[in-house]
Amino acid sequence: MKKAILLLLFFAAYLCGFAQEPTSSNTLLWKISGKNLSRPSYLFGTIHMLCADDIELSDSLKSAIAHCDKVYLEIDMDNLFEMMGAMQKMKMRNDTTLADLLPQKDYQIVKEFFQKQNGLIPFSLLETYKPMLAASTLMEQSMDCDNEVAMEQLIMKEAKGDGKGIKGLETMAYQLSIFDSIPYKLQANQLLNYVKNYGKEDDEKEFNEMVNAYRNQQLNKLEELTQKEDLGMGMQNFANLLLYNRNANWAKKLSDLLPQNALVIAVGAGHLPGEKGVINLLRKAGYKVEPVPNKMIKSKEKVI
Description:
By secondary structure, the chain is an alpha/beta fold. The protein has one domain (4-26, 40-292). The chain is built from 13 helices and 8 strands. It has helices at residues 4-11, 59-67, 80-86, 104-117, 123-126, 131-136, 151-161, 172-178, 184-197, 201-215, 219-228, 239-257, 278-284, and strands spanning 29-33, 41-46, 50-51, 70-73, 148-149, 165-168, 263-268, 288-292. The strands form 2 sheets. It has a 6-stranded mixed beta sheet, with helices on both faces. A hairpin with a 7-residue loop joins β1 (29-33) and β2.
């Protein structure tokens, strides 16, 4: 299956190049020091959905949050005003709907699929969403548990408990605007492909491989899995838009923020590895970025 949608929304990883310096250590937590920093900051790779029963924040990450000044996520998920204001931007422009983008037969396939899912969002509304975002509503159903949790939620809870401010590297409105630069018809075809392959054995196997690579904190394995995917249908043409430009923007912004405060920066794990990944970009900017042990699997599981 061509899982460009799933890869973006779970790991934010597209066509990453290999890192100039290794990211082979099995960890999602990285210490940033050197250059003009009086105190270290920390970079952590997230995933947007996991089973809550077998995952937790490591003592290392908790300590980093406790000793930092601020926590930066991709977006400020604690800003309800911004989140609510951006909801309208989930819709396609010019009153476009999915029925405008797909042949009637394919439209019916997608419509009947979503109606059978009995999701919280009625299809009459969902079909007005940018198709990649419509696909994201299926993510929770891909997990083999009933208590899914986003790593960002755990980090926010820990940060609030420590009285730390939460900020965003970019706004939700900006993130949603990215999908306006990818042709809606291309997104609709990706959604159709996703629906047709949803729940198939090979699809489940590949999805579990990616989740396990994350749980085992294997950034290079995540990169390898995404490189193996046949993105198809022109999605590779948007790698800069979806990944590389954002990485560069974040690295530039962090170069201004890091000297001012000790930070914990938590972004999608797919943004970390690769020549154009955040780890390598920070190293190119003169910072020392080192792996930190990060045991996060609960004791009932085999620890990392």
